[in-house]
Please model this.
Amino acid sequence: MALDNEQRAIARSAVAAFLVTAAVLFVTASLPFFETDTIEDRLTLLVAAFAPLALVLVRDIGRLANHRFVERLDRNAAAADTKTAKADMLSAILRNTHEQVTLAMLIYAIAAITLSPRCTDTILTCSALFLTGRLVFAAGYAKGAGGRAFGFGLTFYPSIVLALLTAATAII
Model:
C-alpha cells in the first residue's frame, strides 16, 4: 500500500516524536535527579508532574471559552445550531487534550506508586514532554494531521513508554 503525502508526513513526525521521547527518557533514566524514598516524596513528584497537565487543560478550556465570548455565533456553544470553524478546531484540540490528560494522569499515578525510587524522574520528564507536545500539537493543528502529528506523538509516546516501563518494573 502506497502512502500519500499526508500519511508520509504523519509517519515521519511520529518516528521523530518517538525518537525524541526515547532519547530524552534514556538520558533522564541514566541521570537520576530526584529519588523518591518516601510516599511524601512520591506525592510531591506527582503534584509536580500533574501541574503542566492541568495548565495545558486550563489553557485549552480558556482558549475555547474566550473564543465563544468574542464570537457571537459560538456564544451558545452546544445549544446552538451554528458553529464557526475556529470553534470546531478549538473544541477538537480541547477534546484531544482531555483524552491525553486522562491517560497521562492515570499512568503517572501508577508509575509514582510502582517505579523504583531511582526511576521516578521519568515521570517529570514525561510531564515536560507532554507540555511541549501539547503546545506543538495546538500550534500545528490548523495545518492538518501532518502538522499536528509530532505534537501528538510527543504527548502520547512518553505516556506509553512510561506505562511499559512501569509494567516491566511490576513484573520484575
